[in-house]
Design a protein that fits this description.
Number of domains of chain A: 2
CATH architecture of the largest domain in chain A: 3-Layer(aba) Sandwich
Strand content of chain A: 15-25%
Shape of chain B: globular
Radius of gyration of chain B: 16 Å
Largest sheet of chain A: 8 strands, mixed
Structural class of chain A: alpha/beta
Number of strands of chain A: 12
CATH topology of chain B: Rossmann fold
Helix content of chain B: 25-40%
CATH architecture of chain B: 3-Layer(aba) Sandwich
Oligomer: heterodimer
CATH superfamily of chain B: Vaccinia Virus protein VP39
Distance between the termini of chain B: 29 Å
Order of helices and strands of chain B: HEHEHEHEHEHHEEHE
């Protein structure tokens, strides 16, 4: 998990006051960059990752040896063209790919576990803001991300209204719904019900609550797909067998697929980080930060917004994305919106969905030409 | 660019803020943006057309005028443009009211059902008229509420909407419509263009 090699880290010296009231300082923020920053420093795009993502956006992730999570969208000549743009992404605080999180040690050299402070989306973006100073960037060309990445996009432009020229929240929400809190709670309960979890102190015993984390991942994974997508990919197809076995092994391909998704996830993700990050998502309610008026979150920004949703995404449905569009229109902001046709569910933003990738590319490239 | 768009563009002063409702592939938007420095937004229902607008670098919202105009604040645009779409809405009156709420002024164009070719088609052939501006068959036309220039003229007056300018368009020729020539224009124009305000 926390393989120190190949991880670039910025030590944030400036104290950061967290929403929970605690202050952290001298903490590590792990990041990665792609492409190069031009001399005018006006081609930087800050990408925010989703719940289980990390800073390794594209190419081969040096820790997992797998493709980066947004390889379809980011790279040379791709939608976010790294021949043209300088892409920065950092692991969120609370995460487990090098940034300050529950698997780190406290000042007494004891692993934090659940003694790590509860963090919020606001804390995450405030930590990441330090990357601008680090690279000497006065204003980003764009900020983007899907799902929890989109929440960070919204929070970032609200906190730093003049720090990005364009803003692209994708498949996201301004306020985590009851249904989404419910799914996250299901995942957390699966983890904490695993006897290996030991109130979060498992790392000292070198045994992880892998079973609980795998179940959390399996449940969440279903929410990332659509019913139609699942039916078309798996239907009732059986897993390497001619007939039902009248037992509880994985008879169906979908069962085997989910078990696989759960097992590979455990190898790369920390259970406590899963608790912390899902909590941050649940606490996210941008309108509430502005007394229920979401428009107020964006009132000071002159950025150009482009919001994208997907037809089959029932986790962050079009209406929740449109609510952001409505809030922006009501203050006369420059906002475009498109709902992409896709049967790949919430995961659409991570996959090869040409209409989405074209829209993203065209919006970025045309906006950059106007620079 | 079609003549209708050129006339619409001529009605709009430089540096204004304009919403193009049903902006299609963004041809008019692009022209206004490039030639008149217009701060332009579009609303378009077709996903394909929205993509074409994005490819042109235009700010467009995918949406339906009957449902999505309400999100814009009162008088938030100098002009709202609606080209040849009013007749396709379930409730054209509501859409017209919304255009005039959102825009300080509105530019509405309508295909004229009073055009002599339309009248002759129905009179002589006895089938639903098909013309250059009304190319669809009765069973697949998006048009639900066809009207004539005269109908629209009277309708607008009855709603106390101010008409700043009304133009009759026949191929490349445009001319002013007024109370006195309404009957003639209603016969010889295939398109009516109205600049209105409430």
């Amino acid at each position: 998990m926390n393989t120190e090699k190949n991880i670039k880290t910025l030590i944030v010296k400036k104290p950061l006051k967290l929403d929970c009231g605690k202050t952290i300082k001298d903490f590590p923020l792990a990041y990665e960059t792609y492409g190069s920053l031009n001399s005018k420093k006006d081609n930087a795009i800050l990408v925010f990752h989703a719940l289980t993502g990390d800073q390794f956006v594209t190419g081969i992730n040096p820790v997992t040896n797998k493709e980066g999570w947004w390889s379809y969208a980011v790279g040379p000549d791709k939608a976010i063209d790294t021949n043209k743009y300088f892409v920065i992404c950092s692991n969120v605080i609370g995460g487990c790919m090098g940034s300050y999180g529950p698997s780190h040690k406290d000042p007494d050299q004891k692993i934090f576990g659940t003694n790590f402070p509860v963090i919020t989306i606001n804390d995450m973006v405030n930590a990441q803001y330090n990357l601008l100073d680090h690279f000497g960037i006065d204003k980003l060309f764009s900020i983007t991300g899907g799902s929890m990445g989109g929440m960070q996009v919204l929070q970032f432009i609200s906190n730093f209204p003049d720090k990005s020229k364009t803003v692209i929240p994708i498949a996201t929400t301004s306020s985590h719904s009851a249904q989404n809190i419910a799914f996250n709670e299901l995942g957390r309960q699966a983890i904490t019900a695993d006897s290996n979890w030991r109130d979060g102190n498992y790392t000292s015993n070198e045994t992880n609550p892998g079973k609980g984390l795998a179940v959390a991942r399996m449940a969440a994974h279903i929410t990332y797909l659509s019913k139609k997508g699942l039916q078309e990919k798996f239907g009732r197809k059986l897993q390497e067998r001619e007939d039902l076995k009248f037992g509880f092994d994985a008879d169906f391909q979908i069962e085997s697929y989910l078990r696989y998704q759960g097992s590979v996830f455990v190898d790369r993700f920390d259970a406590n980080s899963y608790l912390y990050i899902t909590r941050a998502m649940d606490y996210f309610d941008l309108a509430k930060q502005f007394k229920g008026n979401l428009s107020e979150a964006f009132i000071n920004s002159k950025a150009k917004f482009f919001i994208i949703s997907f037809t089959s995404d029932w986790l962050y449905p079009t209406q929740e994305n449109k609510d952001i569009v409505i809030a922006l229109n009501s203050i006369g902001a420059d906002v475009g919106f498109v709902e992409i046709d896709s049967d790949k569910g919430h995961d659409s933003f991570l996959l090869d969905v040409p209409d989405f990738l074209n829209a993203l590319k065209n919006f970025l490239d045309k906006s950059y030409e106007e620079n | 660019m079609k003549n209708e768009f050129q006339i619409i563009a001529d009605l709009i002063e430089k540096d204004k803020k304009v919403l193009d409702v049903g902006c299609a592939d963004g041809t008019l938007m692009k022209f206004l943006k490039d030639n008149k420095n217009i701060n332009i937004r579009g609303l378009e229902i077709s996903k394909e057309k929205v993509q074409e607008c994005i490819a042109k670098g235009l700010t467009v919202i995918e949406g339906n005028a009957e449902k999505d105009l309400k999100q814009f604040p009162d008088k938030s645009f100098d002009y709202v443009v609606l080209s040849q779409t009013l007749q396709a809405f379930l409730n054209p009156e509501l859409v017209l009211d919304e255009l005039l709420r959102v825009g300080k002024k509105a530019i509405v164009t309508i295909p004229n059902f009073g055009y002599w070719k339309v009248r002759f088609h129905l009179l002589l052939k006895g089938t639903m008229p098909i013309t250059k501006t009304l190319p669809d068959e009765w069973y697949n036309t998006p048009n639900l509420h066809m009207c004539t220039i005269k109908d629209f003229f009277h309708f607008v007056k009855s709603k106390d909407i101010k008409i700043f300018k009304s133009l009759a368009l026949n191929n490349l020729n445009s001319s002013i419509i007024n109370e006195n020539n309404l009957g003639i224009k209603n016969l010889f124009a295939d398109l009516g263009i109205f600049l209105i305000e409430k």
